[in-house]
Amino acid sequence: METYHGHVRTPADAIILFEACRIGLLPRVQRRLSEKERQSIRSGSIFVWDEREAGMRRWTDGKSWSASRVSGSFLTYREMEGKRGGSGLSTPLFSGNASKVGSKPGDQDSNDDGPDGYRYKPDGLMKQSFSITTSSGQHLHLISYYSRTISAAQNLVQPSNDANLRHIRPERGMYPESTVHDHSSIPPVTQGPMSGAGYAPVTAHPMPPNGSPYARTAPGGPTGPYPGFTAPTWAPPSPMNTPPPHYPPYY
């Protein structure tokens, strides 16, 4: 059921996988995961789906996750042990217009305890989500899982370094230009847990300036480091029923 096994480190990696799915080289997820498939999720599992084709916006995996944190164009989550009576959570998605990915593998927390009985899972996974809208109107989503240990992350192949995918050339004009050529290195997490209203449609363009507290200016000035660069100006809410957002940061 996996689309790919590896580690997405940059938006360009995600675009390679989107294109490989488009031309039929890799499979897209067509439905929600079964219970058995959820239990098979491991470090390196990557899933890609088309919102309309699969009939779903949100991803459910039966696991408990921390509130989301922004990492460049991605949302990043850390697996929780949850609390007695807790249930699996769904993952809201974030528009990937530009920039980078991921929290640093191997970072350690000064305190793994959260409030109200929640606790980070010591050997738990990290999860990151990425979404774009193509020029043809497809809403494409990617969810990837990876271990927080440096050695485990290093053993996962990066799509842009995969010999089986080196011939992949994203169709011109299909994807936002700012993501196709973005091979930037991994940045730190840039925002804390988020809260707010419900899911908003994903687009490849900046959201209207409604005074979002998450508006940011791209490095290098308002126009970004190169033509066509658009910095994300919004972020979706944390999933419902996630642990309270005032536990110690993990970055």
TrEMBL record:
Bias type Low complexity, positions: 213-233
Biased composition (Pro residues): 234-251
Disordered: annotated span: 81-123, 206-251
GO MF annotation list: DNA binding
Domain of life: Eukaryota
Composition bias type Polar residues, residue spans: 89-100
PANTHER family found in the cross-reference section: CAMP INDEPENDENT REGULATORY PROTEIN (AFU_ORTHOLOGUE AFUA_3G09640), TRANSCRIPTIONAL REGULATOR MIT1
Name this polypeptide is given: cAMP-independent regulatory protein pac2
Organism of derivation: Myriangium duriaei CBS 260.36
